[in-house]
Amino acid sequence: MKLTVKALLTSFGVLASALSAGVGTAPAHAQAKTITLCWAAWDPANALVELSKDFTAKTGIGMKFEFVPWTNYADRFLNELNSHGSLCDLIIGDSQWIGGAAENGQYVKLNDFFKKEGISMDDYMPATVVGYSEWPKNTPNYWALPAMGDAVGWTYRKDWFARPEIQKDFKAKYGRDLAAPKTLDELRDISKFFQGREIDGKKVYGASIYTERGSEGITMGVSNYLYDYGFQYQDPKKPYAMDGFVNSPGAVKGLEAYKELYKCCTPPGASNSYMSEGLDAFKSGQVALQMNFFAFFPGLYKDPNVGGDKIGFFSNPAGPATQATQLGGQGISVVSYSKNQGEALQYIKWFSGGDVQKKWWALGGYACAKSVLNDPSFPSSAPFAGEFLKSMGMVVDFWAEPSYAQLLQAEQKRVHDYVVADKGTAQEALDGLVKDWKAIFKEEGKKF
Amino acid sequence: MNDLSASSQITYRAVPVRPAVARRIRGLSDQALAWLFITPTIVLLLAINIFPLVWTIYLSFTNYRANRANAPTIWLGTDWYQSILTDPDIWAAMQVTAHFVIWTVLIETVLGFGLALLIDKKFRGHGMWTTIILLPMMLSPAVVGNFWTFLYQPQIGLFNYVVAFFTGRDASSFQMLGDVTLSPWAIVIVDAWMWTPYVMLICLAGLRSIPDYIYEAAEVDRASNWRQFWSITLPMALPFIMLAVLFRGIENFKMFDMVNLLTGGGPGSTTEVASITLKRAAFESWRTGYSSAFAIILFVTVFGLANIYVKALNRVKSR
After folding, report:
1. Same domain for B249 and B120?
2. Which of residues A354, A374, A393 is at a domain's end?
3. Are residues B222 and B130 in the same domain?
4. Which of B183, B269, B290 to mutate against chain A (most A CBs within 10 Å)?
5. Is B55 within the bounds of a domain?
6. DSSP B104-128
7. Which of A317, A403, B286, B290 could form a disulfide with B67 if both were Cys (CB 3.0 to 4.6 A apart)?
8. B157 contacts B173 by C-beta, under 8 angstroms
9. Residues forming beta bridges with residue B75, ordered by sequence position
10. How far apart are alpha carbons B107 and B262 in whole angstroms?
């Protein structure tokens, strides 16, 4: 017993010495303050951690990061904002949150700050300013600095496309060369062609597309078809008038086309796929085509198994009505409940700098500054850069209204019910969606 | 000193005239002391149970949204209750919940009781088997949800492989989680796998509480094993079985985590149990008033059904 007590005391002494030694060796230039930045847990977040080291070195302000996986990202941070939490000093919030965050006083309005610091929104790509910063849309009221440009794009197995026997088979079947698709019909043909084909002794499938039910997956996927087939959220001349726009004959065809692609050409078990499932399917060599956000493309290009010469990139192909794509990406905002707003604003000022934006792109983040994107060398700076630039010129975003979450849930349910669960027709799904959206806007007091 | 005198001395020492406990704390009566002890519990109960319940009932009659706390709150009367009770989507969610509750409770009860009967027999290694059987219920539902997602994966999942092995079907020709017909059963299978051991434990307690002399008497009367089961085992274990049914029924009525992880309510709304609908309304749409009304409806349903059931349970116990 005596031995045990003695050992315990000795351990305690050693521990205490170690701790005091640790304290003694702490850096002399201790950071004045630390701020927390909240974002999703994904590749670009790692790049931002690397980039932010420069901010700490320059200002002495420490950076803490709170990254949450995409599937819980909205739940976690919207709860934080709605409960007036001060966990996040800075938040890189999804583009659709901006209406709610602005109207509910969760983000700090940045107009005065931008004016004082000489930050001009004219220096950023227009689509990113409208998508990530403005509320109400198309008015000069800024709640965020465009931080991470993004859109839905596609990757394909360039090495498979280049094989002579595959090219020969494809030409014999479709009468044209096998190449990255220019239209959604071509994309369907290519997917069908690869579905069930044996390559290197392994059965492969056509395409991985978004079908996830729980958060926003299937909506982010189907939109790329709906837009191309003529879907519009509302009458451009009469806000919130949705009849004949959301459920137009073109939109119905677009929804049917997306279902056709899901049924014919996706791997088995792809009924609840989103970003990470798409990455898994592509990286494991299961699929020839993958729908995913551009944010993942730098990582995919570096992948030892499917990256480099084996991967190609293309923007969302054209449909019968137009060529458009779903906007992704986010702006960076200062949370109004933060106790470190001064330091958070310092970060935004630093982040807006031209050199920082260039380094951001170099590290794998998608800068939104014109100084980066309009640089003549930009399209050739990465194999996906040109397609990204093209995509950012044709992006459309989901509703950014304060009630966006309800609007999103309604579309998730209606579309998943039709595409995956085979309930009803495309016309019924979109008519039902109009009904749901009208009810939501009515509850919001909107007149239409 | 003889034994008697010794015991008298002990008795005398053991019953001293002790002052009331309250007198030790100056100025406090016994009743005041009792209140002092139970007040923290009552305050906690009021703060974390009663007040939220009363507040939820109040909110259920308003248009309140937690994400717009500064917006004016309008009294809506019973609008939300009417809207919920006439909403076909809500009734669909209730049907999904009923399917899930009925089948899981039925399967878990039958299998759990069967396993309890087996484990109750002393055999070599029965301790090890009991531990193995209990393992699933010791896991977190989050872990279970995630690894069953892999087991159900059509291309690499063990479940599909086993089914393919025994039926000769192609393993990737069916998907448990993505198929409208199969997905409700997929979640039933996982819940049964995880919680059958729990039912087994309760049933085992029931079986172990049956005195051996009753079986001995039955054997003297030359009752067959079957007769002993129907006349002794089942009736005497019935209160325990009913208790297990009550616990699992209430738990599964509230089921959220596992279903959310396995299917997220999909495909479409095929596995959208009531608690997923409620969570979406409360914490994604932030329709606090609406979701409060829905929560009250669910609470009354569970409370009402549980009360009826407990009365039946008491009747069985009193027999």
Report:
1. yes
2. A393
3. yes
4. B269
5. yes
6. HHHHHHHHHHHHHHHHHS--TTHHH
7. B286
8. no
9. B62
10. 19
* CA distances from residue B24 to A197, B31, B38, B89 in whole angstroms, order as listed: 88, 14, 19, 63
Query: What CATH number should be reported for the domain holding residue B167?
Result: 1.10.3720.10
Query: What six digits make up the tokens of A160?
Result: 């498979």
Question: Does A278 share its domain with A407?
Answer: yes
H helix or E strand, kind and range, residue A372 = helix A370-373
**How are beta strands A205-208 and A287-293 bridged, if at all?**
parallel
Range of the domain at B47: 18-59
Query: How high is the mean pLDDT of chain A?
Result: 91
Nearest residue of chain A to residue B261 (CA atoms): A214
Which chain A residues have a beta carbon less than 8 Å from that of B156?
none
Model's pTM, two decimal places? Answer: 0.84
- B147/B245 same-domain check: yes
Rounded to the nearest 10°, the torsion over CA A290, A293, A299, A304 is 0
Residues A339 and A314 in one domain: no
A75/chain B closest Cα distance in angstroms = 7
Question: By CB neighbour count within 10 A (0-12 exposed, 13-18 middle, 19+ buried), where does B225 fall?
Answer: exposed
Q: Which residue of B has its CA nearest to A106?
A: B67
Q: How do residues B194-244 score in pLDDT, each as one tens digit? A: 999 999 999 999 999 999 999 999 999 999 999 999 999 999 999 999 999
Asked, for residue A19, whether it belongs to a domain, the answer is no
Give B63-103 pLDDT, tens digit per residue: 999 888 778 899 999 999 999 999 999 999 999 999 999 99
Q: CA A73 to CA A94: how far, in whole Å?
A: 9
- Nearest in space to A210 (alpha carbons), one of A411, A6, A445, A444: A411
Q: Which one of A374, A393, A412 terminates a domain?
A: A393
Contacts of residue B283 in chain A, CB cutoff 8 Å? Answer: 75, 79
Cβ–Cβ gap A420/B177 under 8 Å? no
pLDDT in tens, B147-197: 999 999 998 899 999 999 999 988 888 899 989 999 999 999 999 999 999
Size of interface A-B (CB pairs under 8 A): 88
Specify whether B54 is located in the same domain as B111.
no
Domains in chain B: how many in total? Answer: 2
Q: Is A78 exposed, middle or buried (0-12, 13-18, 19+ CB in 10 A)?
A: buried
Burial degree of A142 (CB within 10 A; 0-12, 13-18, 19+)? buried
Widest distance between CA atoms in chain B: 91
Q: Which of B172, B180, B263 sits opposite A272 (nearest CB)?
A: B263
Residue B293 within any structural domain of the chain: yes
Nearest-Cα distance to chain B for A403, in Å, is 7
pLDDT in tens, A183-240: 999 999 999 999 999 999 999 999 999 999 988 999 999 999 999 999 999 999 999 9
B1: in domain: no
Domain hosting residue A144, numbered range = 33-151+328-393
Please report the ipTM that was assigned to this predicted complex: 0.77
From A211, which residue of chain B is nearest by alpha-carbon distance? Answer: B267
Same domain for A363 and A287: no
- Residues of A within 8 A of B175 (CB-CB) are 268-269, 271
Residue found under tokens 């690499």: B156
Say yes or no: A140 and A252 in one domain: no
Residues A205 and A104 in one domain: no
